[in-house]
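In response to reviewer comment 3 from the previous cycle, which asked for concrete evidence that the modeling workflow produces usable outputs, we include below a single protein chain processed end to end. The sequence was submitted unchanged, and the resulting structure tokens are shown without manual editing.
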Amino acid sequence: MTSLTTPLYDPNGQKKGPRRGFESDQHIFQMGPTGAKIKDGLIRKAKVRKSYGKIREKEPVVVPKYYAEQSSSEPEPAPASMELHPARQAMLDRSQESPVSNLSQSSHQPREKRPRRPKHAPFEKEARLVQQQKAAAQERREAAENVRLERQRKIEERERFRKAMTKARTGGKNGQRKLGRESKVLLERVRSLVAE
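The workflow returned the following structure tokens.
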């Protein structure tokens, strides 16, 4: 949408194109009767703005008394002087007198380094708790693994004992039990029981 208050000439003195009247966006026309109402409202507002602008140009600008009194009573700020403040001037004079001595003093005194504070961990308590939980879970896993291995070992030992006893009970050449074999298996079982 173009404004009606645009001048025919720009500040550089070059002539602008001809005025085309009031222009509005195309989508307003596609809205039917509602678009016509919107366009009429835009035209009316533009005309009001234009007439108000003409009235403002004709009338002189009137400053209220309150603002006029304030502006006249305030003293003009003094321009910044080129003189330095006495304390600053004294400091500069001191630094110009002994620049070598200042450097030598500063080079002999090493700066003390403050011990650096440890970085703040935002979830320190939670991290500690999780670490403890992980350690407890690892201990439980190891204990369960040990129990499983022990059970597996006992099952294998029982199976070995059963096979040995079966072999010992089978008859020999004349169908008799092999007591020497059977005694060795039983002795080994007794030793394991005593050891536990």
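The radius of gyration is 53 Å. We consider this sufficient to address the reviewer's concern, and the full set will be provided in the supplementary archive.
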